Each structure stands twice: as structure tokens, then as C-alpha cells.
Amino acid sequence: MGMEEAWLIPAIPAGAFAVLLLFGRYLPRRGDWLAIAAIAASFALFFPVLVDLLGEVDRADFAGVASGIDWVKFSLPTGPDFQLRLGFFVDQLAIVMLAVVTFVTLMVMVYSTGYMKGDPRYGWYFAAMSLFAAAMLTLVLADNFLLLYAAWEGVGFCSYLLIGFWHERRSASEAAKKAFITTRIGDVGLLIGIFLLWREAGTFDISEIFEFAKAGGYSAEYLTMAVLFLFAGAVGKSAQFPLHVWLPDAMEGPTPVSALIHAATMVVAGVYLVARMMPLFLEADPVALNVVTALGLTTVMMSATMGLVATDIKRVIAYSTINSLGLMMVALGSGSVTAAMLYLFAHGFFKALLFLSAGSVIHATERQEVGDLGGLARRMPVTAAVFGLGALSMAGLVPLSGFWAKDEILNVAGDHQNFVVYGFMMLSVFITALYMMRVVILTFLGEPRDREAQEHAHDAEPVMTAPLLLLAALTVVAGFVAFDGVGEALGFPGGFGEFVFVEEAEAFHFPWDVAILSTVAAVAGLAAAFYFWSGAAEPARRAADTFRPAYETLRRKYFVDDIYQWTIDRVVLAAGAVIAWFDRNVVNDTGVDGSAGLGVFSGFGMKFLETGKLPNYALAIVTGVIVLAIVFMVVRV
Amino acid sequence: MSYEEVIFYFVAALTVLGGLGVVLARNVVHSALFLIVALLAVAAVFILLSAEFLAIVQVLIYGGAVTILILFAMMLTRVRDMPGALDGPQRPFAALAAAAFLAISILAVVSAEWPGETEEITVIAFSDLGDKLFRNWAAPFEVASLVLLVALIGAIILAREEEGE
Amino acid sequence: MIPIQHFLVLSSILFSLGIYGVLARRSAVLILMSIELMLQAVSINFIAFAVYLYPKEFSGLIFAIFVITIAAAEVGLALAIILRIFRNKATANVDEVDVLKW
């Protein structure tokens, strides 16, 4: 059992989905144990694959192991070959993703048995989760673009299903629609990019395309264009500006869904895509990476500021997710896969932790608005502690995993980007600490604002708390894999940078100036949060009144949603109305009805020829004969 | 102008006059009488064409049987009682059509290249006619007699009075 | 001798007169008489062609015999039909027999 059998990892949850879909209702407990067993098996299988990989990775020319079956293969008459291949590819990048996805999915599924208990569609929940796991794992392991795209759409579809899980709520089904359509816009770009790459290279295989690009098969402009189209897909899926609007609304889904899909796994698919495509980005014009950085940075700043004024606890965490995704994109834009993947690794754990503990709060109090919460630390100490831990990790406080990961990103930003970018990144550290601490204070500290809701609040049952504790532990220690010493002790060639890299390994280095600056910013943010929001939060209210226009802009999410809605109403629907008019009047009335009507009308007109009178018919015959005679005479004579 | 031509023109004029009378007469019985004239004149034309047998057949059948039939029919359908509109509303069109047809035919006749002898009539021996008729054309001959039989039966069935009619 | 065209022109005139009669006359019997005229013209044509152009196989002559035969049969039947119509509709006017109108 090794890298060749890696295809089992997505296959088992896929099988579980099929069984649950067909027979779920007949199984005891609707089959949740089956879903959990499947994902646990995938997690277990991760280890042999890892061991096999570690055995091979020391070789100088190691570039991953592929396995799979070709399904369809033919040559198009106009040139390129077309292949449909179910192929799987394992390398260091993929293994990191496998670790995060399988583990976090397992945690979330276990947690869900408590959270979703009693839900009428309990069985379908686990079926959809299994399908999601299968699709996500396929996406990670895919060795050719078509399979990747299929899995990409698959996770998008599962996201739609799960966001709209409680579809009796109008807001939930609307949110699901919004998510799907927004990401679809990006997906079109992805598909165009894939076909652009395929057209010249003649293959969908990712490794072959890399070789083709390295050999100069694409012109610089062509490759840049293709790569930017691919990035469009990442923009949609990873909620970068301007396609970020779906993620906050996606919080309509159950909290474990938010934890899994919209924090740890699906949204990072865009990051994973860019990371995997880094060889192409490096071959293309530098403007491509600059675009990535620019959008990433914009996303970071926008989401951080919006998180300051959000009042729904899940929404704040959603904005923090968008924030994190932006950070990862900036890291990639600076050319470092290592930094981005390290952050992805750490982020998977602490973001899932944040969501799941928020879920515990929601489960206990049935409330999500911070206006109804407060002072929960007394009643839910464990939850408060792990949530605080996750928040601090997000803010980037040493020695939590978030610190090491964020520092890596700041390092590469400092090395490769200009002063402006670096400055904004530091500012974002401050703002992140600010809003994360804000939500901690408003939710857990101070006095309860809605006593009645919190009457029965208590820490959740063990099946929900255990995953929280596991994730909390990882939040603390996961960052240490960046160290070379730690990595070697675990059997890796070195620290994280020696394991996951593009072009050349990055040994761990620790610039003190970056570390100190970021710590100062984070602590300043935490302190400021206490100043503004502790107690009766008077300073916060005064600040909001003083800067009312800014406050309103933030509350209205920079009016992006409004602009989009206006565009849809005025542009898209208007265009649709034109087309509808055309379809109704030209195609239907004139084309279809018209041609039929013509037949009927002419038939009606011609029936008057049937007078029933013999002389008329005789005249017709004679006239015909005369005409024929004239014709023959003219033609012959 | 030779004798034949004179006779021809005379007979032709008679035929045409008869025809005109058939289609233009104001009185239906006059039309019938004009028809007899035309039929007999056509018999004369047949003689001019040296087809004496046919002339005789023409006189016998047409002049005898057909005209009697027509007169009987006129009587039975009381054509005379409705002298009013003898001509239908199509008169102008009919005239036009007839004129057009005439023009085309004459044009065709005059301008055509007739294959063969166009001046001399070859007299055909009567015995040859009979020979041909009963040898080569025996089948159509039998069929013709069948047709007559069927027409006879059909006419009787169609024209008889039903019970209670 | 008389050229063939004379006979052909004669038959054309007769035929045209017949056409006029068929199209213009109202009574069915009168139409029938016009049809007889047309048949006469046809016979003249046949015989003329036979004796002038094809004297060896004089099919035209035979055909003329058949024309006369069939004409006679047809007249009998036609008149029977006219009688029938007259009994049903008390009219022999073809203008008034338009049951197959639209």
C-alpha cells in the first residue's frame, strides 16, 4: 500500500456516498457511522501513502507518482488529442492537502453527530458530506485538468447542497444559489484556461503541460492569459475580491458545513490550484503573479475591515476566512508555495476550531448575534478557552501555529514585494487581532446580554467537545513543523520548507524584525480590542458615531452586494428581457406560429378554388393545357 | 383551285358552321340539329380522306344513335323549359381559352416539320384495314366490346327508376 | 392534292369550338354535344395523320374506329348520369350541381 493506491482515499467516501444515498434510510442511525468509518479509513490510508512518499522523496528527481486508468482517448480532426483519464498523482503538495482534508473532515463528521442530532434529514447530511469528501480528495489527487475540473464542480455542487441544507428557509436557498452562481462565474474562467493550455499542449495531463511550458511551448502572452483564466477559477472558489460575496452568505448552512467546506477545505482549493500551477505562473509574465497579489491584498483589507462591524458570530469568522485566503494569495503572489501551504495547513486546524466552537455556542444558546451573547465564558469554559485559542492563533500570537504561518507569509512578502504591500500586510495583522478579539470579548466576556437564552448554556457533549480539543492541540503545535529540527525528527527531509516547495527548497529562517513587528501589531490589536469593546463598549459606540459614513460603508460591505444586484437587475435581467422578447415574438410568434399560420391561411385561401362547379374545373384544365403547350413551344421551338 | 380544294372548302365550311351552331345557338334543339349537320359534314371529310368505312360508321353511329340519344335526353331533362341562361358566367374566359388554343394549334400546325408525305394521300385498301384490325388490334377490339357492354349495363342501372322513386 | 395542314387546321377550329362550348354552356346536355365536337376533331386528326404520314401502319384509322366506339359508350353513360342528376335536383344546369363545394 503506497502512493500507487492513493486512489482509494477518495474512492472509499465515494462508495459510502453511494450506499448512503440508496440505503441510508434503512441503516441504523441513518448510516452516520458508515460515513465516519469511510472518512476514518481515508485518514488511516493517508499514513501508508505518506510513508511511501517519505521513502521516495529523497531522490533528486522525485516529481510525484501517478496512477490511474485511461478512459477515453482519441484525436480530434483539428489537431490536439483528447483524453479522459481517471488519474491520480501524489506529491508533497498533495500529501499536505490530504492530511488537512481527511483529518478535518473526520473531526467535523464526528462533531456533526452531536450538532445535527434530531434533524429530519440527518442521513442525507452525511451522504452529502461523504460526497463532498470524495470530490475534494479527487480534486487534490487529480493528475489531469479534466478530472480536476470535474471534482472542482463536484465540490461546488456539494457546497450548494450543504449551504442550502435547510432549504425551507428562504435565506438558505438564496445563499446556496448565490454561492453556486458566483463560483460558476469563476469556473468559466477556469475552463477557458484549461482549454487554452490544452489547445497548444495537446494534453490535459498536468505534468505534461508543465514540461511543455518549461520547454517554451507557449508564448509568454498566451501562457499569461491562460494562467490568469485559471486564476479566475481560484478567485471564485477562494472568495477573492470581487467574487467574495458568496462566502458570508454561505453561513446559512449548518455550522459544521461552514467549518469544513468554507474554512478548511473547499475554499482553499483555489489556493491549492494556484500553488500547483506555480510552475506555470513562474514561466508566465510576472504580471500574473502581481494580479494574484493585488487581488489577494484587496481581499485581505476589505474582509478585515468588514469583520470589524459584523455582528453575527459566524459571519465574523467567515470574514476571517476570507482574510486568510487573501493572505495565502499574497503569499503565492510573492512566489512562495511554502508559505502559502504552511498557512493552509495551520489555518485548516484553527479555522475549523473557531467554527466548531462557535457551533457549540449556537447549539447551546440557539443564538448567533453577538447582541444576544456575552459572558458565556462562565457557562461554557471549555468552549471559551478553545475559541480564544483559535482567535489568538488567527491573530498570530506566538507561539501558536498561526504566528509561524503568518510570519512566513510576512517574510516572503517583505522579500519579494514592495513596501506598500508589506505595510498593508502589517496593518492587516493589527486589524485581524482587533476584530478577532472583539468577537471573543463580545461573546464570552462581560455580562450576558440575553439572560434567557443563556439559561441552559453549557459546554457541549463529548462527541462535540473532543474534536474541539484535538483541533486545539493541533492549533498549538502544528506551526512547529516549520522547524527543520522538528521535521527531521518526524522523518521528513527537514522543516516544512524542505518538504513543500517549488523550484528549490526553503530552509527555515527567522528574521527577527518581522517577528517583532508582527507581534507588536498583534498585541496592539488585542489591547485596542479590550479598550473598545470591553464592558459596555462605549468607546466603540463613540467611534462608530464619529465615523458614521465609514461605519455604514463597512456595514453595507462596501456596497459590493448592492452593485452586483444592480448589475443583475439592470444589465443581466434587462438583457434577458430582450432575449425573451426576441424568443417570444420572433422565434415563437413569427417563426413557429407564423409559418403554421401561413399554412393555415393559404389553405383557407385556396379552398375557394374548390367551387364544386364543373365548368370552373374544366376551365382550369384547359388553361393548364394551354400554358403547357406554350411552354413546350417556347422551349422546343 | 382544283376540284378537290373546292369541295374541301365547302365541306370544311359546313363543318365549321355546324360547330358554331352547336355552341352558339339560342335554342337547344337548334343546337342538336346543328350537331347533326356537323357530324354529317365530318363524315364527308372522312370521305375526302379516303376513309370511306369510317365515314359510313360515322353516319350510322353518330348520326343515328348518338343524336337520337341526345334528343331523348333533352326531352327527359326538360332542357327546353329553361331557355334563360343558356350560357354560363364563364363565357369571356371560354372565348379567350378557345381563341388561345386555336392560335397555338394553328401555329404548331403551320410551323411544324411533318415527317413524311404531306401532299399525297395514300389510299388504304379496305381489306388491309380489316386485316390489321382483327390481327394486330384484336385485343383492343375485344376490350372495346367489353367497354360497350359495361357502358350498356351501367347506363341501364343508372337510369332506371328505383322502387318508390 | 390537299396538303395535310388544311385538315389539321380544320380539326383545330372544330376543337376550339368544342372548348368554347364546354366552358361556356350551362346545360349538361349542351356540354356533352360540345365534347362530341371535340371528339370529331380528334378523329379527323388521327385519320389525316394515318393516311398522309404513316400509310404503312395506319394506326390512326384503327384508332378513329375506337374513338367512335368509345364516344358512343360514353354518351350513353353520360346521359344516364345526367338523367340521374336531373331526377335528384330537378336541374340539368352544371352551375347548380356544386355539392362538392368547399
Written description of the protein model:
The complex is a heterotrimer of chains A (637), B (165) and C (102). Chain A has 637 residues and is mainly alpha-helical. In chain A, strands 1-2 form a two-stranded antiparallel sheet. In chain A, strand 1 and strand 2 form a beta hairpin. In chain A, helix 6 packs antiparallel against helix 8 and helix 14 crosses helix 17. Chain A starts with 7 loop residues before the first helix and ends with a helix. Chain B is mainly alpha-helical. Helix content of chain B is 73%, strand content 0%. Chain B has six helices and no strands. The longest helix of chain B has 25 residues. Chain C has 102 residues and is an all-alpha fold. Chain C contains three helices and no strands. The longest helix of chain C has 31 residues. Chain C starts with a helix and ends in a 13-residue tail after the last helix. The chains are: A mainly alpha (637), B mainly alpha (165), C mainly alpha (102). At the B-C interface, helix 1, helix 2, helix 3, helix 4 and helix 5 of B face helix 1, helix 2 and helix 3 of C.
Q: What are the segments of chain A in which pLDDT stays under 50 over at least 5 consecutive residues?
A: none
Q: Oligomer, anyone?
A: heterotrimer
Distance between the termini of chain A: 93 Å
Determine the number of helices of chain A (DSSP H or I, runs of at least 4 residues). 26
User: Percent range for helical residues of chain A?
Assistant: over 70%
Beta content of chain C = under 5%
CA-based gyration radius of chain C: 17 Å
The H-and-E topology of chain C, N to C, reads as: HHH
Give the helix tally of chain C: 3
Mean of residue pLDDT of chain A? 86
Overall number of strands of chain C: 0
> Would you report the number of β strands of chain A?
2
Strand adjacency order, main sheet of chain A: 1-2
Strand content of chain A: under 5%
Compute the average pLDDT of chain C.
89
Q: Supply the helix-strand structural class of chain C.
A: mainly alpha
**Taking Cα atoms only, what radius of gyration of chain A do you get, to the nearest Å?**
30 Å
The geometry of chain C reads as elongated
Elements of chain A, N to C (H/E) = HHEEHHHHHHHHHHHHHHHHHHHHHHHH
Keywords:
heterotrimer; A: 637 residues; mainly alpha; two-stranded antiparallel sheet; 26 helices; 2 strands; B: 165 residues; 6 helices; globular
